[in-house]
Specification:
This protein is an alpha+beta fold and about 140 residues long. The protein contains two helices and six strands. The protein has a three-stranded mixed beta sheet with strand order 4-1-6.
Length: about 140
């Protein structure tokens, strides 16, 4: 079913995009598990936006993993881009393991995703949107073989 819910819309900031076009064309992209291939991000502390050839849909899927709301692409930008930013403090973190001692926040001092995107001429705007929602109606344990 579809449901109206709060989201972040990725939009172009008022000053326009500050994105670098990728040297790789979409026609040259092949399915590859190489982390530096098309449509892939290279990881790092704070989930930096480091990629050689991504589109805006790739970007919203990537950052949506660490934001507190789903992210939708409303940029109207097409093509592949190269991005290289610093890491950012995720909006949501996994819970600590049971009985774990409190640890130092490894993301302390990192900017927000809002600040990182602003350097790319992009911004996240909180809006309402209609998204598909899947309802699990029944769960069963698998049968023994």
């Amino acid at each position: 079913e579809n449901k109206t819910m709060p989201v972040y819309a990725l939009t172009v900031a008022s000053g326009g995009p500050k994105l670098q076009k990728s040297a790789i064309a979409e026609k040259d992209c092949t399915f590859d598990t190489d982390p530096e291939a098309c449509h892939n991000f290279v990881g790092g502390l704070g989930h930096p936006l480091n990629a050689k050839a991504i589109d805006m849909d790739d970007l919203v899927h990537y950052i949506g993993n660490w934001t507190d709301l789903p992210v939708v692409n409303r940029t109207a930008l097409s093509g592949l881009f190269t991005v290289n930013t610093e890491g950012w403090a995720p909006m949501r973190l996994p819970p600590p393991p049971p009985n774990a001692t409190p640890a130092v926040n490894p993301f302390a001092g990192l900017p927000t995703i809002f600040a990182v995107l602003s350097k790319l001429g992009l911004e996240l705007k909180r809006q309402e949107d209609i998204l598909p929602v899947y309802n699990v109606e029944r769960i069963e344990r698998p049968a023994a073989n």
